[in-house]
Specification:
Strands 2-1-3-4-5 form a five-stranded parallel sheet, with helices on one face. It has a five-stranded antiparallel sheet with strand order 8-7-6-9-10. The chain has two domains: 159 residues, Rossmann fold (3-Layer(aba) Sandwich); 52 residues, SH3 type barrels (Roll). With 229 residues, it is α/β, with parallel strands linked by helices. It is globular. β6 and β7 form a beta hairpin.
Length: 229
């Protein structure tokens, strides 16, 4: 697959996911520690309906110089969206993106040059194969303009806003499919052999007797109510 085709496919998948999240009431949180003007531009694009009849969508920017993880942890709600424009080795973005599952948010990482973030680093990755900072910056602008336009294209087709009919739907109090998998969670507090963690943005109590005592903010893998790593 050519780079252009790959970027187009990634854009399409991300736009569909964003439209579904926005339709359910999500807020988009935009961050770019190295290029804060891009984060602001993304937020403005989604908030400001430049075409008559288009929806104004909730989007805000993580302030310049703020602790990205701490700011997002304090503000995001389950179902929100986190968009980052950054190199693959930006430590704040790496740390924030890997917490998306625990916070229950959709994550989108846009970047260029260097190594593409490893699989699973974010729900969606749009990556450009260029080391020219000027070319990358210009392409970023085109990408998030297309992201805005394609998100609104999805709104024009209400059938696309429904959940995937082939997806797994939990209808029981204990889902066999989910309970057989380790879930990434973020530790909120610790007391003895128990901890309160966030899983998909919801707090729950787990047993931590099988691992070394974690600290608030640590990420732990949970299976059947026990922290296993």
């Amino acid at each position: 697959m050519t780079e252009i085709a790959a970027v187009a496919e990634d854009l399409g998948r991300a736009s569909l996911a964003l439209a579904r999240r926005f339709n359910a009431g999500a807020t988009m949180w935009c961050t770019s520690p190295s290029w804060p003007f891009h984060a602001s531009h993304v937020a403005v694009e989604f908030v400001h309906p430049v075409i008559v009849g288009k929806r104004a969508l909730a989007a805000v920017t993580v302030p310049i110089g703020a602790d990205v993880v701490a700011t997002l942890r304090a503000n995001v709600r389950p179902g929100d969206i986190v968009v980052a424009l950054a190199d693959s080795d930006d430590p704040q973005v790496v740390d924030a993106m890997r917490r998306g599952e625990a916070w229950g948010v959709e994550t989108l990482w846009i970047g260029a040059g260097g190594e593409r973030p490893r699989s699973g680093s974010a729900d969606h990755v749009i990556w450009l194969d260029t080391d020219d900072p000027l070319e990358a910056s210009e392409c970023f602008v085109r990408i998030y303009h297309l992201l805005w336009e394609l998100t609104h294209v999805v709104f024009e087709h209400p059938g696309l806003l429904k959940d995937d009919p082939n997806g797994v739907v939990c209808t029981e109090e204990v889902c066999i499919t989910c309970s057989d998998e380790g879930r990434l969670t973020e530790v909120v507090s610790v007391a003895g052999d128990e901890a309160v963690v966030k899983a998909l943005g919801i707090e729950e109590r787990i047993d931590i007797s099988l691992i070394d005592p974690p600290a608030p903010g640590d990420l732990v893998l949970v299976h059947a109510g026990f922290a296993i790593r």
